[in-house]
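pasting for ref
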Amino acid sequence: MFTDLASGTPFNVCSRISSCKDNIRVIAGTNLPMLLSRLFHRELCLESFIKKMIKDGKENIMVFKKIQKQT
């Protein structure tokens, strides 16, 4: 289950649901690259799938830095 914020209502509800199931994981901090990657890696086993989602999410967090032109 993908949620936006850890400790938010969706995360808390999903955590309660997943605590009763062995095949459900809850991922907080979901971003769009994670969701897109999810579509292409559904065939992975659950643990590999989770690792791939987290890796893809982290790799797509960037800061824009303006480069000033030299005169």
